[in-house]
User: Fold this.
Amino acid sequence: MTISDKSAVKTIGSRIWVFFGSLKLTLFVLFSLAAFSVVGTVIQQNQPTEFYSGEYGKWAPLILRIGLEDMYHAWWFSTLLLLLILNIIVCTIDRFPPKWKTTLESKADVDARFIKNLLNKHTLILQDKPAFVRERILNILRKKRYKVKEASGAEGMSIYAWKGRTGRFGSDVVHVSLLLILCGVIIGSITGFKDFGAFYEGEVITVPVTELRLGIDRSWHGIPLPKIERQEKASDIQLRLDKFWIDYYESGQIKQYNSVLTLSDSGREIIKGRQIWVNAPLSYKGITFYQSSYGTAYDRVKQAEFLLKRAKTHKTITPPFTALWNTPYDIPGTDYRIKVVGFVSDFAFDPATSTVFPKSAEHNNPAINVEVYKAGKLVSRPWLFYNYADLFAAIPDSDYELVFDSYKGILYTGLSINKDPGTNVVWIGSALMVVGFFMAFFIFHKRIWVNVRKGSLETEVNIGGMINKNKFVFERELSEIVDEIKSGSSGGIKQ
Amino acid sequence: MKVIMSLLFFDMAFWFYLATMILYFGYWIFRKEWLGQAATVIAIISTFAISMMLVFRTKESGHAPFSNLYESMAFFVWITSIAYLIMEFKYKIKVVGAFVMSIAFIAMVATSQLPYRFQDIQPLNPALQSIWFELHVFSAFIGYSGFGLAFGMALMYLIKARFEERKTSNFLIDRFPASAMLDELSYKSVAWGFIFFTLGALILGAVWANKAWGTYWSWDPKETWSLITWFVYAAYLHARITRGWRGKKAAYVAVFGFLSTIFLYWGVSFVLPGLHAYASQ
Assistant:
């Protein structure tokens, strides 16, 4: 490689570096992220394919091709985020070291000319002795909580005063906090899991855990690439739903959903009878259980009420009687016994497998499955319909007719089970971000230089300064300092 | 539930804000000092009236006064007024009042035009019963107000900068503070707004969502629009220090940011579906 080649590489390299570190890129990425996110709120996300062809017609293939239907996970959206991260990192590497240096540097030995070149400056002619004037200026600055450093050179005595240096690093704190939040998000997406389940009172479930393994992915041109494989396994943690109920307002609106949970780990009861509700979840070993929804069971009931009629006359011969779920019940005055063994909220039948199943979780067509015994022998097993009484004969070869009159459903609770170890990192990042904002917006780096020198008859004071932002406030503060210097003098003339 | 007193104070505040706006315009146009003083006094009375409205609303409903669009709009007007009055006392720039109080009055008009069901008090659904929800909304609205003030001053900046560039004089525009001052104050408002917006809309919103639904971020339209707005104001802060972007372009971004805020606040609730759609129910 010749020298010119090397410098060409270097130029390209430094151009790329400059590109990644530029504020123009920041603006481009921020506006792009904003614009694409707008698209993501207009085009509904994560719908089935048919939805898009129905809604957008000939544009649907394009939408699906680009990934606009799941755009927050599309490769180009991630690329934009990656650009933002690179931009932040390169900017920080570029700007932080020189900023650190200039912020910490404290050049106290300055002459009057240096001060006169500053944007904010004042020149005072005072009658007092230089040493006296210097002492008073030091006191005023210290009283205003400036840190000071003195020097004396050929041009008399000079002072450097500063405060609010941390304000300079507010933006860096914000940038780091943003990276931290993104780290938390990534940790969560790799190691966390989210599960949802419907539970009945008394039911026990085993909580899953995620196991990570390093595997090899060859899906990209057969090239082996490292890949993190996730596997959900049963853990030693078990959860039991003791109770679920709903509180209502007087107006009938729902006030709160409540579940009482008992949690055991490796067979030992750890948490007993803890009540959770919306906004008050239960956490154990990083796994959190949230009250998320509720519903009425579609495949079981608490109890059902029946009537017994004469088949021919349809005349009721017994008062309504109640049979509990899966509990034998002797019908009074007969030698029949029934047992409720099945329920579907929305009856459907699959002829291929001869099975009954609920078409939906809605209670559109409730049907109950009953076993009928005569003298202890099973004689029939009919499905009875709530909406269509006496559709089928329930008890064959008899004068009786069994009618499914009403039922009491079982409420289930919908629990979300989450584990996200990245959440705490996100919160730490968030807190840091707010701190960074306060540093950046409200702590101003103020620097003041003063030169006190002896004129022919009097003392000449040059004072000037800089601030990194908020210059109107600083102008006022500097004038106040100047006024104080003058007012303490035994007779001054301002020039 | 009885909602008499809060509605009464709202109606009072409505007319006071109209008077405030007219007085600030009067001060701006006719340059009479007494008009300016009257404007400030009526602005304080308006703020008091809307404060009383919020106090009675809290008493009548038994929850923090920002759980639906009607309440939160009044709350927005309240914070905006207080922020403006602080600024007026600190920087003595009363002409800005004509712009800011116009925003406040427009907000009052929009609130009064909401369907009647919003004025009625609804008990809180389970998800809204959380201190995190209250902190979330409280802080987010301070953010909205900061953005609103910045919007007003960015508009003034754009007008003023145009006249300064051409070195033309106009008896109305000459009354504006210098463009450098408007830029600085607009920036300050964004800074305050951005902190509270980030804390309220994004961070506390995420904390609340995590408590209520077990996930701190779900790309729900309201969340996404908060992020869009955040991106726009982040761009504003970077534009202000970018050569070729500072000044006018940055001011346009601040204007654009507030339009995004308005959509985030009103548009999403009515146009886009999602978790926050309860605002329109």
